Amino acid sequence: MTTTSTHFSRVPISALPPDVAERIAAGEVIERPVSVVKELLENALDAGAREIRIEVRGGGLRLMRVTDDGYGIPADELERACARHSTSKIRRVEDLERLRTLGFRGEALASIAAVAEVNIVSRAIESEASGAEQPAASLTLRGSEVTGRGHKARLRGTTVTVRDLFYNVPARLKFMRSPRTESAHIEQVARRYAIGYPAVRFQLAQEEQIILQTSGSGDLATTLAELYSLPLLEVLDPLSASLDEGSEHAFRLHGYIGNRALAQNSRQHITVFVNGRWVHSRPLFDAVESGYRGLLPKGKHPLLVLHITLPPRDLDANVHPAKTEVKLMREAEISSAITKTIRAALERSPALPETLDFPGPGLVYQRHLPGIRRRGLHVAETTGHYSAQQAGPTSAELLASLRPLAQLQEAVILAEAPDGSLYLIDQHRAHERVIYEHLRRTYAGVQAEQQDEEHWPEAHLLLEPVVVELKRHEVDLFEQRLPMLRGMGLECERFGGRSFLVRSVPGNSEQLAGHLPELARMAAEDSNDWQDRLFIGLACRSALRRGRVLGLDEQRALLNALAQASAPAVCPHGSPIILHYSRSFLIDRFDW
Ligand code: ADP
Ligand code: MG
Asked: What's the Rg (C-alpha) of the chain?
């Protein structure tokens, strides 16, 4: 064996033998079993299927079968369907601009056939319509070679069976994880498409066990209930927004977000579709995340399904082999609409009595949930039950209708709703939210030049001015901001060196006095959102503390003030203000 010289010796360039080229090309599309399932599902959906059944054995390495009732493939086109770059979905490059199908490259079946044994049985809609009793055609390929042709009886639609995946690509086979890992990936993809297509009935069986199924009700909330076994009315809030309706660039958002009690430890349950295509898009995920940042505890992520619909022209799906990345023409507008919609929904959703353990990818929801009788997967009967339209009164109406009963630990207001459910309201956080919104409404955007006396806030003079000392690098910014701070009710003046004298504060002066050094540092922060952070600081430091006894009238006043807030359910730090024990929860727990 030559050693060093091989490094430098050059081998002439030659074309790869077709079978090698095939397998390399296939590797781009078919990385692991789940890629096969994904491509077959997309084909079934493109064929207009209303019902799709998926069967998997051995993590997909032994067998994967997808059966649909779509428009089928005519017998004389079967072989063409398995050839590379053959598709019925586009004819010329311009067609990419009006793409309405998930597939378009014409390489999935060819790629699968290059690295496995594939059998396709299909009965096309044409043969059914002609009334001719033609049986379905069957074609088998192994490593791209046709190994069998035949006929079989079946109703309209297509069944694709894939066996021995990667039998001829040992390198790839070596890298496969355990069948269980592959099965989990397949389950995730199946769930994603089931969420994406609520009007289609899905069923996934792994090792002959039904893992998930949906009823094809067409309703997204019902579909989510079927997949996750959740008491949806209590934990999901609808999302919807549209922009530029009627214009040629109109786009629409719709979906659901789990409320704060359903917060998850991973992003796994965030699902985004663009024109029916599941996408993995950094910019869109960033927009989603800025929507819930600060509204969910740190490190928590929502259960979220978001459908974005826009003109095909405004979308480029042709940027990634698996077509999961897309380019959006109007990314900035879409992103900001997403952020706003999510934020608004979460700000309104109250928390549940206790944090529910999310069932996760598994199906069985172990915990007994309030008011829900589950019978395996047959939740179709609950359609009405789960309807999002039934969502009760708005949070403002609801809070204003609460009747305070008592105070718990001198910290929590107990209140009864007209429907007999129990609400617990954290008095400190509620007051904090009220003050924060008041400060924002009144003084946000107060600029140095807007020193209009009429709009000066109520400033409370401190009995004794407080001296605060700042760090050297903070002094300049703080001094520049003095007029603005004055506009917010914080009247300060330079007191020589790095010291400032604080004469007045907005709100409860007694309580704030002790916190002025900390607040001054916030006011001197070199950041874009220093004003908001200062409002949060002011609100936190002047709000009613826990341990303060409140009479019923004071409790009612606080609830009324909270009812006016635009985000009554979360404090400005993102923690819950309200806990809710629903009537059905009580009935369930007491077993009434
Ligand atoms: P693409 O989906 O990009 O067109 P594929 O290799 O996945 O490429 O499929 C090739 C062609 O085979 C499709 O364009 C379609 O006409 C046909 N086909 C594949 N699967 C099905 C199916 N389940 N039902 C009907 N037609 C199908
Ligand atoms: Mg396809």
From this structure: 31
The CB density around residue 237, as the number of other CB atoms within 10 Å, is 20
Q: Which amino acid is at 264?
A: Q
Report field, pTM of the whole predicted structure over 0.70 = no
Beta bridge partners of 139: 120, 149
Structure token digits, residue 510: 């007694």
**Ramachandran region, residue 68 (left: φ > 0; alpha: ψ -120 to 50; beta: rest):** beta
Single-letter code of the amino acid located at 430: A
Q: Residue 53 is encoded by which pair of tokens?
A: 């059944």
- Is 196 a pocket residue for ligand 1 (Cβ < 6 Å)? no
Q: Does any ligand 1 atom lie closer than 6 A to the CB of residue 87?
A: yes
Helix (H, G, I), strand (E, B) or coil at 142: strand
Query: What is the C-alpha to C-alpha distance for residues 524 and 522, in angstroms, rounded to an integer?
Result: 5
| Residue 501 dihedral angles phi and psi, to the nearest 5° | -105, 125
Identify the pLDDT of residue 443: 72
Highest mean pLDDT among 82-91, 133-142, 453-462: 133-142
Q: Which residue has the tokens 């609801």?
A: 398
Detail the DSSP E strand segments found in 143-279. Answer: 145-152, 157-163, 201-206, 209-213, 236-243, 251-258, 270-274, 277-278
Q: Which of 307, 277, 308 is nearest to 46 (CA)?
A: 277
Helices 282-292 and 331-348: crossing angle in degrees, nearest 10, is: 30
List, in sequence order, every residue forming a beta bridge with 138; answer none if it has no partner.
121, 150
DSSP 76: G
Residue with the nearest Cα to atom 17 of ligand 1? 81
81 ligand 1 Cβ < 6 A: yes
Provide the pLDDT for residue 451: 43
| DSSP secondary structure code for residue 576 in this structure | B
* Residues constituting the chain: 592
**Structural domains for the chain:** 18-213 (3.30.565.10), 220-347 (3.30.230.10), 393-592 (3.30.1540.20)
Condensed to tens digits (0 to 9), the pLDDT of residues 477-531 reads 999 999 888 878 888 999 889 999 999 888 777 788 889 999 999 999 998 778 8
Q: Is 430 buried (19+), middle (13-18) or exposed (0-12) by CB count in 10 A?
A: buried
Of the candidates 426, 421, 259, 269, which has an alpha carbon nearest to the alpha carbon of residue 356?
Answer: 259
Residue 398, classed as helix, strand or coil, is helix
Cβ-proximal residues to 71 (8 Å cutoff; 6+ apart), any chain: 47, 48, 124, 125, 156
Could you identify the atom of ligand 1 that is nearest to the CA of residue 108? 6
Question: Do 46 and 101 contact (CB within 8 A), yes or no?
Answer: yes
